[in-house]
Amino acid sequence: MVSTPEPPSPEATAAAQGQMNKETAIAQANLNAVDYVTPYGNITTTQTGTWSDGTPKYTQTTALSDAQQAVLDQTQGAQLNLATIANDQSAFLNEYLDKPFTFDNNSAETWAYDLASPRILQQQQQNEDQLRSTLAAKGIREGSAAWNAEMQRLTNANTDQLNQLALTGRQQAYNEALSTYNAPINTISALMSGSQVTGPNTATSATSQTPVAGVDYTGLVNQKYQADLANSRSAMGGLFGLLGAGISAFSDRRLKENIRKVGETFNGTPIYVYNFIGDLTPQMGVMAQELAEKQPEAVVMDPSGYLKVLYAEVR
User: String of b and e for 112-138 (b: at least 16 CB within 10 Å)?
Assistant: First the structure.
């Protein structure tokens, strides 16, 4: 039968495509549910049930070698010990952190001065004695403008040196005081970090995954529909040519024989293959009597008494 094919149902096509995608995923999982055997231990993959939709559910079980299990036990024991110590020491921080960090600048400057000034002052005195000797050798008298200018330069340099001593000493003292204050906090942080050491890893062999190509069911359905549609249009080409030509032709059932239905027009009028009585040439068209029931305007009576069809009007 030649007829315009019905377009595929989007819902049915999507449902079929989804089912095929699921089956592809299951096949992929089955092919790749392999076991691993390594020097560090084994990994076993087993199906342990199904999900609510029937999809297989898998479980991977890792079993370490005796040596690796011993390493893991020791590592976890060390982690527990460190975590316990960190927990005990953290209680100390409640009271400790209630006291904010403080720093005494004056004490730091005094500490630095007491530490370094004896050597610096000795050196400054030597520099002053040397300058006096140098000025006297040049004939510059004490109390002169040149003398006073050189002595003032030396005094400024000595003052800058002592100021630098105070600043450097204060920064060093501040860093040491802050480091001392942070020591308990850093200790507990180190313990907490140590308690998170990662255990031994079971290395798996580099097994390639087996791919399973999916089925483009939606594309196949659409291709078949397009092919069926093209075949339908090709088979009905002769009739559509008559429609486009605007001709009228005898189509009275009484003039035909070997009648076989092959399709329908867009309006549902049956289309037949036949031959006229006395002429074995195959023809395609409608029956005037049937068309008259739906489209009487497309049927005319020939003076011979037989019905003709105005194919340009056929729908």
Answer: bbeeeeeeeeeebeeeeeeebeebeee
